[in-house]
Amino acid sequence: MARTLVTGGTGHLGRLVVPRLVEAVDEVRVVSRSPHASGDGIEYVVADWTTGEGLTEAVRGADVVVHLAGDQLHNEATAQALLRAVREAGHRPHLVNVSVVGAERVPVRTGFDRRVLGYMPSKYAAERVLEGSGLPWTNLRATQFHELVLIAARGLGKLPVVPAPTGWQAQPIAADEVAARLVELALGSPQGRVPDLAGPEVHTFRAMIRGYLDAVGSRRPTVPVRVPGGASRAYAAGANLAPDRAVGKQTWAEFLAAEAGPGRR
Ligand SMILES: NC(=O)c1ccc[n+]([C@@H]2O[C@H](COP(=O)([O-])OP(=O)(O)OC[C@H]3O[C@@H](n4cnc5c(N)ncnc54)[C@H](OP(=O)(O)O)[C@@H]3O)[C@@H](O)[C@H]2O)c1
Fold this sequence. Notes:
This is NmrA family transcriptional regulator. This protein is of the alpha/beta class. The protein has helices spanning about 10-25, 55-60, 75-90, 110-115, 120-130, 145-155, 175-185, 205-215, 230-235, 250-260; strands spanning about 5, 25-30, 40-45, 65, 95-100, 135-140, 160-165, 170, 190-195, 205, 220-225.
C-alpha cells in the first residue's frame, strides 16, 4: 500500500487524518517545522518551508502527499515550496490538497482585507499552484470547521459585550468528517477538483456565537459590528457557503453539546 506524506499533520485536521491513514497504509510520514517523537506508526521529519531544507527528503519516496499545511496568508508560498521539493525528489506523487469553499469568491482589494481576510485568496492561489503543477492531484474544498468557529467564539466570548460581524454567515462542518473524506481521496486515484464538503446548516456568525454563549451559560450580550471591505461583504453574501453541498452530518448544536458546556468554556 502507498507510502503517504502528510504536511500539516500536527495541526487540528492533521491529527484527525494521520491516525486514519496509519490504519490504512503501510507508511505514514508527517512533515513538521518542529521535531516530534516518531512512534505509533508515524515517522515525523523536520523541514524548513522557507529554505526548503528537509522538505525534499521528506517528500522522497511518497506515493501520496496529503497537503494540509497552511496558515492565514502564506498558502501559495507553502504550495510552491512543496512543488519544488517534489520536483527535486524527482517523482510524481498524488497530491491531495485541502482548500476552502468559496476560495475564489472572496475579493481582497484593500490592505485591511488583505491583513484580516486574506485567507481565502491565499488558499485559492495555493490551489492554482497545485493544479498547474502537472502532477496528479485531487482538491477538496471544505467549509469552516466547527472547531475554528469555537476558537473564535471562545476568544470573543471573554469580552464583556461580544462583537459579531454584521451579516457574516457560515456553514460549519466537523473536521473529523473532512478528515474521513480526505483519507478516502488519498486512498483513491487522482480526481482533480471533487465536490465541496459543507456542513449541514447555514447560520449567521452572530447566532453561532449566541449558541456558544448559551451553551456555556454566559448571559453576555452580542452586538453586531460592521466589518468594512469587500471580503466582509462577501462573507455576508454567503460566498463561503455551499448550501447545495450540505452533506456534513454533525450540526453546530450537536458539536457544542459535545465540546462546550457550563464547565467547558
Ligand atoms: N480550519 C478550518 O475551518 C478549515 C476549513 C477548510 C480548510 N482548512 C484547511 O485545512 C488545513 C488544516 O487546517 P487546520 O485548521 O488543521 O490548521 P492548523 O491546526 O493551523 O494546522 C496547520 C498545520 O500546518 C503547519 N503550518 C502552519 N503554518 C505553516 C507555514 N507557514 N508553512 C508550513 N507549514 C505551516 C503547522 O504544522 P507544524 O507547526 O508542525 O509545521 C500546523 O500544524 C489548512 O490547509 C486549512 O487551510 C481549514
